[in-house]
Amino acid sequence: MKLPYKNILPSILCISLIGIDLMWTRQTGMMAVQTIPDWFYDFRLPRVLAALFAGISLSVAGLALQSLFRNPLAGPFLTGITPGASFAIGILLLAFPAGISSPFWQQVGLTGAGMVGGIGVLLLQLLISRKTGGMFTLLLTGVLLSYLLGAGVEIMQNIAGAEQVRSFVMWGMGNFDRVQISQLYWFAPISILSFFWILLNRFKLNAWLPGEMYAQNAGVNAHQLKFSMIVVTGILAGATTAICGPIGFVGLAAPHLAKMLYRSNDHGTILLPTAIWGACLCLFADIVAHNLYTDLTLNVNAICAIIGAPVVLAVVLRNKIQ
After folding, report:
1. Nearest Cα residue to 194 out of 93, 280, 278, 320
2. What is the rounded distance in angstroms from the CA atom of residue 298 to the CA atom of residue 308?
3. Domain CATH for 129
4. Domain residues for 250?
5. What is the reported pTM?
6. For residue 18, is it within any domain?
7. What is the percentage of the chain residues whose pLDDT exceeds 70?
8. Hey, which of 29, 36, 75, 220 would disulfide with 62, CB 3.0 to 4.6 Å?
9. Dist CA 27 CA 33 (whole Å)
């Protein structure tokens, strides 16, 4: 993996955003290190670290999906992975009126449900993509699946109790405020290990881009590559959705920012910048959500959509997709 000078600017930006998100408060401005309050380690630090690793996870998953489907519009949200994870988590949250008593098993259940839902939708998308080769097929089926799964969640909310609906709505807002430091003990390793797994498979992904026949001639086991990428991206998107709620467009926007900066599709070159830009997007959205208004916290998912939607439009216009 190359570490050229072009990584310096986004790295400095990412470090700066981490510092601002950690130390800035809308009431008093920048905190002094000597006056860090007790709530900093219980609430602020987990929130910022969650934004950091969520950005890395979603962006790396988005890059792998775009390569796997050879489609610039592929991403965890638009392919239906995030809605699939949300649907599975909704079933879990709405199926237990009294909730799950053990916090540990609650997190295991949420994470497992998110992974199963995300991987299941991705397998369906992969099956559909094998039968049709249109550029917009992936996007169209992703939107249709999102509406279908959303309708299922709405029906479950109609028949569920008030407390169940409240817990699901609070989770579905999509932000990093509710993340606890104990959750990062497993979320951070998942994000880091998945990053290095995709890094180890960068040459296979490069060979996959020209076509499956080219990859097989290069000695790549196509079925193994597809299965491993489905599992890894499903784990990344599912785990992120489980602890942070649905966060859209980061996985779509960050890879394209890296590709535009480097003018390259080589995974060894753009994987690290993709992760950095993903972290920057989530950190920036978290800063805006907590500091744009003095008495109101905005939805991080909505801010990510405002940032990511123009990127989708730029990709469509740049590639002249029809």
Report:
1. 278
2. 16
3. 1.10.3470.10
4. 39-319
5. 0.87
6. no
7. 88
8. 75
9. 16
